[in-house]
Write a structure and sequence with these properties.
By secondary structure, this protein is mainly α. It has helices spanning about 10-30, 35-40, 45, 55-60, 70-90, 90-115, 125-140, 155-175, 185-240, 245-255; strands at about 145-150, 150-155. It has a two-stranded antiparallel sheet with strand order 1-2. It is elongated.
C-alpha cells in the first residue's frame, strides 16, 4: 500500500496544527497554563465580545495536551483524506473547506451546548474540520478501502458509522449532559461536507456565470466608450476643439485617466 503524496494545503495545515500543539505543550510545561482559555470555543467566550467570534477559527488548531491521541488521530485523518480531497478541489479549496467545516462544527457545538446549559464548556480541536473532509472524501470515493481498528471497510461505511455515532452521542448528551468528546462538532463538520458535495458545484457554476456576465458588461461598456471617443475625435477633426460641449470635454478628460473599475 502506497502512502498518499503530501499535498501543499495538507502540509500547511499539519504544520500549523502541530506547531500550535508544541507551543501549547511548552506553555503547559513551563507555566501550567493551556491555550484553551484563550483560543478554545464556548458559547460564553463569544457572547458579549466582538472579537470572540474569531474563536470559531482558532479552536480548530488547538488540541489537548492531556490526550496525545486527540491530535494524532485528527492529523492522520487530515493526511489520508485531506490529500484525496485537495486533489479534487485544489489547495485553496481545501484550506477554505477545512475552515468552513470547522466553523460549521463550532456552530453546531455552540447551539447544542447552549441548549444543554453548558455554555461554559470549551471545545478545541480539528475534529469538526477533519470529519467534514472525511465525509466529502467518502462521497468522492465511497468504495475506497480503509483500515479501521481490526477490519477493512469501504470508506462510505466508515463515514456512515462515525456519523451515526456522532449523531447518537449528541442526542444522548441532551439527557446525560456533554461528555469528553464534542460529538456535535463532529456532526456539524460532516453536515458541511455533505452540503459542500451537494451544492458547491451549483454555487461554482452560479459564480462563474456572474463573473462571465460581469466581463460581458465591461466589454460592452468599453465598446461604448470607444465608439463615443471615435465620434468626438471625428467632431474635433471636422469642427475643431471649440465645437465640443462641456460633457464631451469631461468625457475626454475621464477617458485619458483610463477605464473606470
Amino acid at each position: 500500500m502506497h502512502l498518499p503524496r503530501l499535498t501543499p494545503a495538507v502540509k500547511a495545515l499539519l504544520l500549523v496544527n502541530v506547531g500550535v500543539f508544541l507551543c501549547g505543550t511548552l506553555l503547559y510545561l513551563t507555566t501550567g497554563a493551556t491555550l484553551s482559555p484563550w483560543l478554545g470555543l464556548s458559547l460564553h467566550s463569544i457572547t458579549g465580545n466582538p472579537i470572540g467570534v474569531l474563536r470559531l477559527v482558532t479552536y480548530q488548531f488547538v488540541h489537548s495536551q492531556f490526550d496525545l491521541w486527540h491530535i494524532v488521530m485528527n492529523m492522520l485523518v487530515l493526511y489520508f483524506f485531506g490529500t484525496m480531497v485537495e486533489e479534487r478541489i485544489g489547495t485553496r479549496g481545501l484550506v477554505r473547506f477545512y475552515l468552513l467545516a470547522g466553523i460549521t462544527g463550532g456552530l453546531f457545538w455552540l447551539v447544542t451546548s447552549g441548549l444543554m446549559g453548558a455554555s461554559d464548556i470549551r471545545v478545541v480541536g480539528a475534529s469538526g474540520a477533519v470529519y467534514g473532509i472525511m465525509a466529502y472524501a467518502a462521497l468522492l470515493a465511497p468504495m475506497a478501502r480503509v483500515f479501521f481498528l481490526i477490519v477493512i471497510l469501504p470508506l462510505w461505511v466508515l463515514a456512515a458509522l462515525l456519523g451515526f455515532f456522532a449523531l447518537y452521542n449528541t442526542m444522548l448528551a441532551f439527557r446525560a449532559g456533554p461528555g469528553q468528546v464534542a460529538d456535535a462538532a463532529h456532526l456539524g463538520g460532516m453536515v458541511f461536507g455533505l452540503l459542500w458535495w451537494r451544492f458547491h458545484g451549483r454555487l461554482a457554476a452560479w459564480r462563474a456565470g456572474l463573473e462571465a456576465a460581469g466581463r460581458a458588461r465591461r466589454r460592452r461598456r468599453e465598446e461604448a466608450r470607444r465608439k463615443e471617443l471615435d465620434r468626438i475625435l471625428a467632431k474635433i477633426k471636422d469642427r475643431g476643439m471649440p465645437s465640443l460641449s462641456a460633457m464631451e470635454r469631461r468625457f475626454l478628460e475621464r477617458y485619458s485617466q483610463g477605464p473606470r473599475r
